[in-house]
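Figure S4 source data
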Amino acid sequence: MRRTHTRPTTALAALAALAVAAMGTRPAAADGPLQLTTVRVASGLFRPLFVTAPPGDLDRIFIVEQHEGRIRIVKNGALLATAFLNIKAKINNSDEQGFLGLAFHPNYAQNGFFYVNYTTGSGAGRTHVSRYQVSGDPDVANAASEQILIDVAQPFTNHNGGWLGFGPDDGYLYVALGDGGSGGDPGDRAQSLGTILGKILRIDVDSATPYGIPPDNPFVGVVNAREEIWAWGLRNPWRPSHDRLTADLWIADVGQNAWEEVSFEPGNSPGGVNYGWRCREGAHNFDMSGNCTAPRVEPIHEYSHSSGRCSITGGYVYRGCAMPELQGTYFLGDYCSSEIWSFRYDGTTMTEFTTRTAELAPGGGLTINNPVSFGEDAAGEMYICDQGGEIFKIVRRDSADVTVTLLPPENEFQAGTTCDLDVRVVNRTALPQDVTIWIDGFRPPNDTPLGMNPVLGPRSFTIAPNRTVLRTATLRVPFHVGPSGPYALRATQGVFPGTICDTDCFKFNVIP
């Protein structure tokens, strides 16, 4: 049985969980297909490799700079001058090596833990997967807090993988490692269960130091097999990702000289899947002379090295709020040709394959060259890392924007009385928008959810283009049986299942 991981108890995480249970509706679509574009959200970076955000943090994105060994923060739209973390002195930064991965613990708001993947040492060096912790300043990490979890020698300087990600349903840390490099996997490492190279690992960072082995990992108790292994037969996975709704695992694996591929593992998989390298490159035989007797799973999509294509960049399944028409759409690109595509996959059939390259061109003299990675923010909106130094956000061309605002009558209330609270929802788009809103209560200073039903809603309604709607809730004070003192209310506008589009909060005091 897969473990249910304890989720964060912050207000934002509680609201996200509530949104899963509250059936929202999707914005009405304009005639014809949704038109996309990109906007630049950061520039002047040095080989940006990845972008992500802590769970529930709607104000910041964190960017990995591969060869500078830094994590940079874009906060409320501005790139902060001080790095969140700088480990340049530790990294080995040859072409494919350097700072390669970042993931925030699901309970980051409570424990401040985040995990990094980087190469270090001389020559081919070593891969380290380490845990760090934030300092007392939320925008600066404690650089002295490193705890190394994984230390593995690299036989060559290429094919290091580097992706890290926490499973959305089990809370385990997944680690992608390439086959160790050179060409054609000369050590046949990807097909050997005795090494962690050429694999995706699944480890429990909460149960032991430096980590524990999940008891349902597929090779637990198997002689001569590394028990950390979750999936095998990979050349240079770049990049995997989890669907944050379904926990499906998507794996883009860079090919040798002919084929790039995307593999798919459903969220209920027991693991242990062999994706075929080096026996197969994509859906084609490559080198069948080694350990090629184990069953293999073929990719769901491949493309050849033609028209300048040579290296796949895997993305994400869109689960954001601003473009609900794209829910369930997977994005990917090619590093060499700078092409970007998307498609849907239902576990059996691929549909709606769309070339997005021209559509996502930002315009205004800006271009996306060499997309090295995609990323998500805490709301599920999607970004593209241009290794030339820029980060672009995928947005809709009609710039849909719906916001929610609380309008409290005052900030101190007498216990046992009632008051009316207004919620203002504004539709700034040229289309009607179907929205769902709700209000919940919290107890400062830690914004602990009160474990109650929503104070208001969830309520769903349609707002006409460029209109404002007011909704009123009548509250009894205090609305929670407890002591007098500080309380808080938070209004949320969301899209099912579990995405926060906008929030507003106010804190007030209850007097006896």
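Figure S5 source data
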Amino acid sequence: MTGPGLSTARKMAVARGLFLCVQGLRRLAGRTTTEVSCRRRGAHWSLDIREGVQLALYLGVYERATSRRLLEFARPGSIVLDVGANIGAHTLPLARAVGSQGRVVAVEPTDSAFARLVRNRSLNPDLEPRIVTVQSALGPPGAAAADGYYSSWPLQPVASRHPILRGTRHAATGAKAVTLDDLVASLNLPRVDLVKIDVDGGELEVLAGAGGVIARDSPTVVFEACPYLLAERGRTLDELLAYFLSRDYELLDEASLRPVGDDLSKIAAAIPEGGSQNLVARRAAPRP
């Protein structure tokens, strides 16, 4: 997930500069490895600072607005789905927020990110019982999992990367395709209070398999609106926003929680070229 303002390419350029600074300082201190163990956001982590998400988490700057909003929504006893959990950057803080009676279901399809997610969960035995890790690709009924997904943003040269997203695809040999509704049923979850979706343009596919949970529980949904990634899948931002508006949800700006309205063209115009905006979908209060 990213916020408005800078394009993804510009943010990656900034991240590469930060990586070089951090790497240089660590070498001066005699630390040559890029694998680090640290405590951030109230949890213990195993991180590789050559990767963008993990460097940002190490520096304490990873998706601060998103993290603040998620922790505000996740109350003691909440049941949360972290769809596109990656290495658990939001999963672990959410697990602390929901308390011993809550649950966080962390869904990640790629082999490498899932392995580090499981490792980070194991480093926090106090949080581990609250977290369910699932290596799956959520989608509509009958869909098949892809052979790979974008799940890392290398800060060093690589053979190939997405021309705009700047990420690289990773194998998902262990991932099974499942709908969100079926996953919730298989885990016997009595309800879902909050859903975070960060799947690089696959939001509508996830939501196509979530109709039952959306109708039953009306969970708050925090998601990324990224026009160019949606277009790559033959979908549009209008379709994504209309999904929520047609189900009596209101759309809010993530940072301010102010309603963005229902003028789809105006919402799209606020998103920078090659960038994205994080939005909150929340069931609208009944009119008197």
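Residues 21 and 175 are 36 Å apart (CA to CA). The first strand starts at residue 35 and ends at 40.
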